[in-house]
Amino acid sequence: MVTPLSRALLTAAGLSAVLAAPAAAAPATVTVANKQFGPSAVTIAAGETVTWKFNESGHDVAGSGWSGNTSFATGTFTRTFPTAGTFSYVCEAHSSMRGTVTVTGAGAPAPAPSPAPKAPAPPTGVPLPVAADVVAPSLAGARATLPRGRTRARLSVRVSEDAWIGIVPRRVGAGKAMAPILRHATKGANRFSLKLAGLHAGRYRLQVRAVDAAGNWSPVRRVTLRVAGR
Questions:
Q1: Each residue of 190-200: b (16+ CB within 10 Å) or e?
Q2: Tens digit of pLDDT for each residue in 17-65?
Q3: Strand 49-54 and strand 75-80: pairing?
Q4: CATH class, range 24-121
Q5: Is there a contact between 139 and 159 (Cβ–Cβ < 8 Å)?
Q6: Quick one: fold of 139-227?
Q7: pTM of the model
């Protein structure tokens, strides 16, 4: 029979057990954004979980014998760590993105970190996401000449990557530019023959600019061309 006294003792005992029990470790969340893991190092108790929240696409997470978010999309991936240890991981698409999960056991000190695994090679035939190209091509060594009596000028230019070269000729002192010329250039040194009909003696300036396949434009290079009298 449960008496008021026994009920009070049971209630007190239950309350004491709750107060004496250690608090469970909260699961950790790692945010993946701006090509980094944040935070890059988390500590949890054995049996707890870590959730990676991918706020941008193009990343996954891979440790020794496990991986997640292999679709490289946005979303979340959660993994439970049942045993104590320090577990390193990387993003397979960006080897500079690294992190660690330290898992502690009851009453046991945190173990020494294990070496970070190397990012594995991309699977054959499965392209990994490529970072957007934001680097503009560069031009160097631009020089133009026009032999006497000729209507075709020679333009030499060196470009840092495959690109399209836009050339706009303009006579110095004249307000109207001539029709623009477009040429395809390959990485390295290039030489173009430019037909410039109706030239008069004087000084001309060629505005030269390159644009790559990603739409990045180089700064304008201005090249002087002198046309001698006939």
A1: bebebebeebe
A2: 333 333 334 589 999 999 999 999 999 999 999 999 999 999 999 999 9
A3: antiparallel
A4: mainly beta
A5: yes
A6: Immunoglobulin-like (2.60.40)
A7: 0.42
